[in-house]
Amino acid sequence: MVPFSQRRHRLHDDEVPEAIEGLRLRFLQHLKTKSDLYEAQVAFRAFYRLSTYCRGRPSYPNPVTWDLIDSYVNGTISEEGGA
Description:
The protein is an all-alpha fold and 83 residues long. It has one domain (15-73). The protein has 3 helices and no strands. α1 crosses α3.
């Protein structure tokens, strides 16, 4: 049996918008300090998976930069990937 802390967590459909909004708010904190790009990139990958449908492994934008994160936070790039 896999310990609960190591289990893969799933979100219900009605939880996804709240999770996306929580990540967007976290991005605002990251953008204010710009102190840890790695942590912002980890959050971005979770945000991208929740907001962009893809079959199989996601094809993340590369590189994930402060400017890219800012574009997603401010709606310059839609969550569906279009500019």
